[in-house]
Design goal:
The chain has six helices and 26 strands. By secondary structure, the protein is mainly beta. The strands form eight sheets. Strands 1-2-3-4 form a four-stranded antiparallel β-sheet, with no helix packed on it. It has a four-stranded antiparallel β-sheet with strand order 7-8-9-14, with no helix packed on it. A hairpin with a 5-residue loop joins strand 11 and strand 12.
């Protein structure tokens, strides 16, 4: 039986002493497990993507088989450092006169076709496809070297290699050795003892290469990327648009959702999260700042401005106000593996939705119970507004 786990919250790697300052570039901004659970990818504010590999208790069966086991795991999973990628560097957009941070907003694992690992990483404007591979190098090691014989070539080039045979001259001046002779026993043993070779298979550290760069398609900050179940396409979402990409074509994308109004004064909602359906490649869902989840069918039209289903919890906060809109904004959403349920996160709750019931969530989990909405017009409310308002700073600047 494994020892009891002690849970800690940390947004940086490594142990920190009391009072030790944390560098801004070391703060973790994105974490993602791969489908098998054997690898973890994390991104930070310094533009780095660090990969970890599970080193104990690997189970290669299905999750259902693991759940059927009648005993708990004997040890807790442990992940060790595998490799590190400098995914993004700080850039400056000279046309719009603003700096693009290197901070990694999202990392997503791609389906594996071989022993190599593929993942997508995104900062505010650019998405990159990375390939991580581990090469096997064959090294030849000499076990019992014989000083009298310097190398195999020296031995083979000697005149006495074939017993009783002499070299026959040819017209071009080279010698042609006859192959009808027999190697004597004592010379054969000497050759085997002096040139006993062993082949060692060595693993080099993981090598990472950038295979694609998907850029110049977003005017606002990228907040979501999602791989389609067809393993050929993926979406990237910013505050107002969602683009559809092909993994093999970095020079072209298709805008499938556009919420940008002609007049920015009429802007009432922004996109905060987007996710492909894990089973049906034609379905995707996205959440917004109003706390609404919209399910879209891409087969209906090229521009998916119409929704197949709308999921909204109308009784969550009662009457709408500035504060309720901020704390009700969906920060992240995720489909269950079967595609039947969706889990959404806002500032105060986790909500589990059934795609067959759009009137209300089937379950709600409170997160910050101590921040009760009954404390209206209190100093705590204004403090909450200041914290939540930060991700939408660009929106207020645009309106003013």
């Amino acid at each position: 039986m494994g020892s009891k786990l002690e849970w800690k919250f940390s947004q940086v790697f490594g142990e920190r002493k009391a009072g030790e300052e944390i560098e801004n570039v070391d703060i973790i901004t994105a974490v993602e497990f791969d489908k098998s659970g054997e690898y973890i990818a994390s991104g930070d504010r310094g533009g780095r993507v660090v990969l970890f590999e599970r080193t104990n208790g690997k189970y290669h069966g299905s999750r259902k088989d693991l759940e059927r086991l009648d005993h708990p795991p004997r040890s807790h999973p442990e992940y060790h450092y595998k490799t590190e990628i400098q995914s993004h560097e700080p850039e400056f957009d000279y046309l719009k006169s603003f700096e693009i941070e290197e901070k990694v907003n999202k990392v997503k694992w791609c389906p594996r076709a071989n022993d190599s690992l593929f993942l997508l990483s995104a900062n505010d404007k650019t998405i990159k496809l990375w390939k991580v591979m581990q090469r096997k190098v064959k090294k030849v090691e000499e076990i019992n070297p014989n000083p009298s014989v310097s190398s195999e070539n020296t031995l083979l080039s000697g005149k006495g290699f074939l017993l009783g045979q002499e070299e026959s001259p040819v017209a071009n001046g080279n010698s042609l050795e006859k192959t009808s002779g027999i190697l004597p026993n004592d010379l054969s043993k000497s050759l085997e003892e002096s040139l006993s070779l062993r082949h060692l298979i060595l693993r080099e550290p993981s090598i990472s290469r950038c295979r694609r760069v998907y850029a110049h398609a977003h005017d606002f900050h990228i907040n979501s990327i999602s791989i389609n179940s067809d393993c050929e396409t993926f979406i990237s979402a910013d505050d107002l648009r969602i683009n559809l990409w092909n993994l093999e074509k970095s020079y072209q994308c298709f805008n499938i959702i556009d919420l940008k109004p002609n007049n920015m004064e009429d802007l009432t909602e922004v996109i905060t999260s987007a996710e492909f359906h894990p089973v049906h490649c034609n379905l995707l869902a996205y959440g917004g700042s109003k706390g609404i989840i919209r399910l879209v069918d891409m087969r209906q039209s090229a521009l998916c401005d119409g929704c197949a289903r709308i999921f909204e919890d109308k009784a969550a906060h009662g009457p709408r106000s500035f504060l309720t809109e901020l704390i009700g904004a969906i920060s992240h959403m995720k489909f269950a593996s079967n595609g039947r349920h969706v889990l959404s996160r806002d500032y105060m709750n986790l909500k589990l939705w059934d795609l067959h019931m759009d009137s209300s969530p089937i379950s709600t989990f409170k997160i910050h119970e101590y921040l009760s909405p009954k404390e209206a017009a209190s100093p705590k409310e204004h403090e909450i507004c200041a914290i939540i308002r930060q991700p939408y700073t660009w929106l207020w600047k645009t309106r003013t």
